[in-house]
Amino acid sequence: MSTQNLQQKPAPGSEVELALYEIRNKVYPRAVTGVFAKWRWVLVWFTQLLFYGLPWLTWGDRPMVLFDLEARRFFLFGLVLYPQDFIYLTGLLVISALALFLVTAVAGRVWCGYACPQTVYTEIFMWVERRVEGDRIARMKLDKAPMSANKLARKATKHALWVAIALWTGITFVGYFTPIRELLGQIASFSMGPWQTFWVLFYGFATWGNAGFMREQVCKYMCPYARFQGVMFDRDTLTVTYDYKRGSRSKKADPAALGLGDCIDCTLCVQVCPTGIDIRDGLQVECIDCSACIDACDQVMDKMNYPRGLIRYTTENALEQGYGREKIAKRLRRPRVLIYAAILAAVTIALFGHLLTSAPLKVDVLRDRTLGREVEDGLVENTYRLQLINSAEAPRRFLVSVSGIESIFVTGETAFEVGPAGTRLVPITVRTQPGMGEPGSNRIVFHVQAEDKPSVSVDAASTYFVPR
């Protein structure tokens, strides 16, 4: 029996001393095939095509997705957002958190097992490792062997491929903030800026270190999700579970004759586990629900002509009470899940409804520090600066008017052109007839509308000061 990743279990009733810190035993996950392994690779391909592909797509004459921090503009498909739209980012974070809560309440850590960047890049790096160094046993032998030309060549090749993937990942990450074609041109001409260089190297180093070396340590000790996920679990949450009722036995024993269980103690479920745990010990915080143990165990059950499902997705209640699929599905629709789903739906509809119906115009009013003053003919004058933000990707001419006090009007220029996805700060002078308004502060409203499309309009409130 291989014990590389299998910790010896203490005898019943014995005392066990647990160390606060322990030396890491390197985990050598064995390659596995099966339904869930295929789904993991589907998610790997989907997430990476999305991540690596988006910076190359264009929308008109600009990148489809670009976070231009220098110009303080964020392009998302057909939308142009500004720092004033920070509420949308907050809403997206809330939606992401609620979606994570919902998925966790229903199916445990499936996010960790299939779509988390740490899992995805670890899967990619392990694929490279297996192609260069071999599967589990070959890698263990290679690491134990003394340094040789063969070992050095394999290790160097593996790390060269890892570094190439990591650096391309860093370049792609920065490509979301600097147009990637422009960025590659800067790299080719050695003219990349210091911050761009820093983030390419930093993100590349983080990818290389986390996916190549730290791997399960990130999931077990660094990821905060592993620490609080238990709060969202209950006895009706689907998790990867070992069916202890089917029991275990020696591989050579006849279960029918001895009345023993189906587990033959092959330890394949441990050998394929990326975090190096034994699922037979029950639900553990280190388990990321990747289902590698399910694929491995099902193959063993097939060879032994036993029914599949010794390790499977199920719930604690289902395992104890013997629920069927219909009963499990029914109990998944419990109050916690319905509340998460309702809140998630409400927040999502509100956010995207507001985003799609908001006018492609934003107005900020900056009042001049000078208080109201009397000018010729006894008129009272206040000055302002209006920041006009055109979110449309075409130039637009905006008309400015004001209301709130009788006889109030804008003097001077009242029409201003703003470029596509542009911002313009314009001075505005407002006057009233003598005796209009109350002494002190008065509420007024600026009305800004597009000359070619009056429905594109925004009202912005401010104060108008009348001298006492």
By secondary-structure content and strand pairing, the structural class works out as alpha+beta
Helix count equals 16
How widely separated are the two ends? 94 Å
Average residue-wise pLDDT: 88
Oligomer: single chain
Helix amount:
40-55%
Give a quick account of the main beta sheet: strands, pairing sense, barrel closure: 5 strands, antiparallel
Rg from alpha-carbon coordinates: 32 Å
Inertia-based shape = elongated
Please explain how this structure is put together.
With 468 residues, this protein is an alpha+beta fold. Helix content is 42%, strand content 19%. The strands form 5 sheets. Strands 8, 9, 10, 12 and 14 form a 5-stranded antiparallel sheet that branches. Strands 13-11-15-16 form a 4-stranded antiparallel sheet, with no helix packed on it. It is elongated and about 100 Å long.
In terms of topology, how is this protein built?
Blueprint: H1 35-53, E1 58-59, E2 62-63, E3 65-68, E4 73-76, E5 79-81, H2 86-107, H3 110-114, H4 117-133, H5 136-144, H6 149-174, H7 180-188, H8 194-214, H9 216-222, H10 225-228, E6 239-242, H11 255-258, H12 268-271, H13 292-303, E7 311-314, H14 316-321, H15 325-332, H16 335-357, E8 361-367, E9 373-374, E10 380-390, E11 396-403, E12 409-411, E13 415-418, E14 423-432, E15 440-450, E16 457-466
Helix pairs in contact: 1-4, 2-16, 4-6, 4-8, 6-8
